Amino acid sequence: MAEYPTSFDKDDLLKCARGELFGEGNAQLPAPPMLMMDRITDISGDGGKHGKGHVVAEFDIVPDLWFFDCHFPGNPIMPGCLGLDGLWQLTGFNLGWRGWQGRGYALGVGEVKLTGMVRPDRKKLTYYVDFTKAVQTRRLTMGVADGIVEADGEVIYQVKDMKVALSES
């Protein structure tokens, strides 16, 4: 395991987006506005429900977020795909946090359930990523995880079998 802290603030996440946290050519978060979290409050390589690693992160919801004006005019809702992307971002971040090399790529997701919405009156999203598998071999570096997104404590998104890989090419 690499020697990184177990929590990260917005400045740390922006360093990761610039490629400064895990090193050039390694796991990198997207820059705003596609960065879908404001802080990571806890991360591990051996915690979570399955003992294979986890991430907990938060995203502050404010009414002037970029997607509310366009999705949908007069009926503002955060696109569900952005919540899914946040979960993928955190899955890849965990792989980089482990010290594993390569750029992150979402490979897929087995199941997605959207049971609620994020409107401008919500205050905070909380992401929970629990790894079911984390593999690093000579040919493959990949994490498989389940995820939940809560809006102000209410479960609104659930995913199973998210897959993110790291590749050095």
From TrEMBL:
Enzyme nomenclature, EC number: 4.2.1.59
Entry keyword set: Cytoplasm, Fatty acid biosynthesis, Fatty acid metabolism, Isomerase, Lipid biosynthesis, Lipid metabolism, Lyase
UniProt xrefs under SUPFAM superfamilies: Thioesterase/thiol ester dehydrase-isomerase (SSF54637)
GO molecular function, one term: (3R)-hydroxyacyl-[acyl-carrier-protein] dehydratase activity
Compartment(s): Cytoplasm
Pathway: Lipid metabolism; fatty acid biosynthesis
Keyword GTP-binding appears in the UniProt entry: no
Biological processes per GO annotation: fatty acid biosynthetic process
Predominant location: cytoplasm
Swiss-Prot/TrEMBL catalytic activity: a (3R)-hydroxyacyl-[ACP] = a (2E)-enoyl-[ACP] + H2O
EC class name: lyase
Gene Ontology CC terms, in alphabetical order: cytoplasm
Assembly and interaction partners: Homodimer.
Protein family: Belongs to the thioester dehydratase family. FabA subfamily.
Full protein name: 3-hydroxyacyl-[acyl-carrier-protein] dehydratase FabA
Organism: Maritimibacter alkaliphilus HTCC2654
